[in-house]
Amino acid sequence: MQKKQTWIDYYNMEAHPEGGYFHQVLKSDETFERENQSPTALYTSIYFLLTDSNPSRFHRLTSDEIWYYHYGNPLTVHMITPEGEYQQVYLGTDIEKGQVLQAVVPKNTIFGSTVEEKDGYSLVGCMVSPGFKFEDFELFERQVLLEKYPEHKEIITRLTTEEK
């Protein structure tokens, strides 16, 4: 298996504020106007590399995000729906274990991702439509989520920090 640093170096990935490493590979030339906002690309796409010690922390987008498994260890996408329901999706190649090659995280869903294998990593692609903009990105502090969803304390504690 390729070493994680090989992917990080090859794609010139940088640290993402939610965790992991990313590199934007596609951004639509077509845009549209949202009220009181700068023009928004129809879609954006990144390569995203996560490790067992550097997960994607709980955050929320105002757009749908499609995740595509590419390489490495399986990845678990943890979601809290707007109704407060906890769900998981497993990205990977082992269909007998319920893994899928791609999955959608609906807009306004709180989500984060983990690699469960010790010293493991996962390389995925993430496509956001309408396109990703940091002004549409919300990273959560632990206490905010614990107050709203105390029944999900274990995963909230794992995928948040005390401060943003």
TrEMBL record:
<dbReference type="InterPro" id="IPR039935">
    <property type="entry name" value="YML079W-like"/>
</dbReference>
<dbReference type="InterPro" id="IPR014710">
    <property type="entry name" value="RmlC-like_jellyroll"/>
</dbReference>
<dbReference type="Pfam" id="PF06172">
    <property type="entry name" value="Cupin_5"/>
</dbReference>
<protein>
    <submittedName>
        <fullName>Cupin domain-containing protein</fullName>
    </submittedName>
</protein>
<dbReference type="InterPro" id="IPR011051">
    <property type="entry name" value="RmlC_Cupin_sf"/>
</dbReference>
<dbReference type="InterPro" id="IPR009327">
    <property type="entry name" value="Cupin_DUF985"/>
</dbReference>
<feature type="domain" description="DUF985">
    <location>
        <begin position="5"/>
        <end position="140"/>
    </location>
</feature>
